[in-house]
């Protein structure tokens, strides 16, 4: 899922027209029509197409959960392979971006592209048990 949508402005007990739902979710009208084609339930099959807010919220919640890719400790999401991978040689570089966190940078063990993941500095000792982490200066 490349674009994030807003769900906080969608009211559960309100019926929306396609353009109203698009405004509330912060997406375009064709995006809402694509959601309807993908299975978002309508009030009825007549025009104008009406969508109940609770149906839209449930559909978008399921869509967001399906797009989620949870990572285990020491894994990176490889954008090229589109799956979580352990880095090449179980090595990574930690680049601090603030006092409380930073970015782990590694190379995919399969396709050798660069992978990044943001982590908290608090979790660094746990990750060092799994990976060989070198701390780099961000300059």
Automatic annotation (TrEMBL):
Q: What is this protein called?
A: Helix-turn-helix domain-containing protein
Matching entries from InterPro entries are given as: DNA-bd_dom_put_sf, WH-like_DNA-bd_sf
Q: Which domain of life is it from?
A: Bacteria
The species this protein belongs to is Octadecabacter antarcticus 307
């Amino acid at each position: 899922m490349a674009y994030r949508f807003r769900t906080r402005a969608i009211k559960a007990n309100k019926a929306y027209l396609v353009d109203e739902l698009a405004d509330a979710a912060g997406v375009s009208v064709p995006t809402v029509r694509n959601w309807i084609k993908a299975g978002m339930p309508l009030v009825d099959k007549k025009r104008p197409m009406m969508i109940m807010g609770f149906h839209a919220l449930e559909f978008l919640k399921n869509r967001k959960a399906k797009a989620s890719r949870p990572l285990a400790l020491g894994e990176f999401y490889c954008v090229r392979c589109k799956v979580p991978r352990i880095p090449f040689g179980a090595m990574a570089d930690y680049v601090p971006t603030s006092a409380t966190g930073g970015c782990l940078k590694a190379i995919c063990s399969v396709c050798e592209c660069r992978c990044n993941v943001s982590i908290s500095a608090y979790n660094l000792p746990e990750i060092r048990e799994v990976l060989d982490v070198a701390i780099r200066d961000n300059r």
